[in-house]
Design a protein that fits this description.
The structure is a single chain. With about 375 residues, the chain is mainly beta. It is built from 2 helices and 28 strands. It has helices at about 5-30, 35-40; strands spanning about 55-60, 70-75, 80-85, 90-95, 100-105, 110-115, 120-125, 130-135, 150-155, 160-165, 170-175, 180-185, 190-195, 205-210, 220-225, 230-235, 240-245, 250-255, 260-265, 270-275, 280-285, 300-305, 310-315, 320-325, 330, 345-350, 355-360, 365-370. The strands form 7 sheets. A 4-stranded antiparallel beta sheet has the order 1-28-27-26, with no helix packed on it. The protein has a 4-stranded antiparallel beta sheet with strand order 2-3-4-5, with no helix packed on it. Strands 6-7-8-9 form a 4-stranded antiparallel beta sheet, with no helix packed on it. The termini are far apart. Keywords: Repeat, Transducer, WD repeat. It comes from Pisum sativum.
Length: about 375
């Protein structure tokens, strides 16, 4: 068979796949008679409201000299680790704003960081294609630097995201630009399972984000530049359990809903979406025009502890607080006093839901305290 014939067959096959994908999309839409917001409105639900003192920026964490790319809270709520383009990880006391560790990284181009469940170690990864583990209890060297305690090597592309398996300091999952996710045994430094890659049900472009199910740590979701999110079961690494379509751009952020039955996504197409892992259906789209009338990309998302609020950071500095039931923006942290002066790159909710931390290209992190809505959120 000639090259020209192969190209013709490839074009025909691509067209067939696209037609089938569009028919599947239309079929899904025909089965969805309403969305969450439509049902909530029919039940007379009122949106969450915030007073002028219900959410306040209570602390600004200053210390990085480069853009902040990632952050994570400890499970006991009072410490935060952040990763910056300045080539350092900083561990902060969120209550006092003090730095407890400033870790110089072997590769300055860091993209992700995570605390272990016990808070005894931190992990990070970036353009060196390695996930580095630091034991915070280890002694420093003569220059005051903390040495790497374990390097997890095996990805063929940059490490975009990492997260420890809940309740285990010995296992974590990474997502990579090589289109795969990997479950690692930190004790041995070896890969336990690889998700995607040569398997047809894997992502077809860079993996940008992962989120492990807090209710069932065997399940995790991944978001990718192929505009899809995929659900994986660590017990069945050979194929994705389900693939979720709907976005029209890179899926930059994924996050499980508190009950573990749903997850949210944030995308380059400017929208956030909510999916159900049991049915595979898209439950809601969160989309609103920004004040500058330009489409801002979603960089990071988080849910409040009850799931009633979805917080989304955008490239234009907005940070919308969505009412997940009514798909309505109830507050823009970017418009409040002491807000960030640049792109929001990362955000995360404390374990008890009392505070939100945001990171930005302005080199700072900010902690937002939730006041009178603790029971609602």
């Amino acid at each position: 068979m000639s090259v020209a014939e192969l190209k013709e067959r490839h074009i025909a096959a691509t067209e067939t796949v696209n037609n089938l994908r569009e028919r599947l999309k239309q079929r899904r839409l025909s089965l969805l008679d309403t969305d969450i917001a439509g049902y909530a409105r029919s039940q007379g639900r009122a949106p969450v409201t915030f007073g002028p003192t219900d959410i306040l920026c209570c602390r600004t964490l200053q210390g990085h000299t480069g853009k902040v790319y990632s952050l994570d809270w400890t499970s006991e709520k009072n410490r935060i680790v952040s990763a910056s383009q300045d080539g350092r990880l900083i561990v902060w006391n969120a209550l006092t704003s003090q730095k407890t560790h400033a870790i110089k990284l072997p590769c300055a181009w860091v993209m992700t960081c995570a605390f272990s469940p016990t808070g005894q170690s931190v992990a990070c990864g970036g353009l060196d294609s390695v996930c580095s583990i630091f034991n915070l209890n280890s002694p420093t060297d003569r220059d005051g630097n903390l040495n790497v305690s374990r390097m997890l090597s095996g990805h063929k592309g940059y490490v975009s995201s990492c997260q420890y398996v809940p309740g285990e300091d010995t296992h974590l999952i990474t997502g990579s630009g090589d289109q795969t996710c990997v479950l690692w045994d930190i004790t041995t430094g070896l890969r336990t399972s690889v998700f995607g890659g040569e398997f047809q049900s894997g992502h077809t472009a860079d993996v940008l984000s992962i989120s492990i199910n807090g209710s069932n740590s065997k399940l995790f979701v991944s978001g990718s530049c192929d505009a899809t999110a995929r659900l994986w079961d660590t017990r069945v690494a050979s194929r994705a359990v389900r693939t979720f379509h709907g976005h029209e751009g890179d899926v930059n952020s994924v996050k499980f809903f508190p009950d573990g039955n749903r997850f949210g996504t944030g995308s380059e197409d400017g929208t956030c979406r909510l999916f159900d892992i049991r049915t595979g259906h898209q439950l809601q789209v969160y989309n609103q025009q920004h004040q500058d009338n330009e489409m801002a990309h979603v960089t990071s998302i988080a849910f409040s502890i009850s799931g009633r609020l979805l917080i989304a950071g955008y490239t234009n500095g907005d940070c919308y607080v969505w009412d997940t039931l009514l798909a309505k923006v109830v507050l823009n942290l970017g418009s409040l006093q002491n807000s960030h002066e640049g792109r929001i790159t990362c955000l995360g909710m404390s374990a008890d839901g009392s505070a939100l931390c945001t990171g930005s290209w302005d080199t700072n992190l900010k902690i937002w305290a939730f006041g009178g809505h603790r029971k609602v959120i």
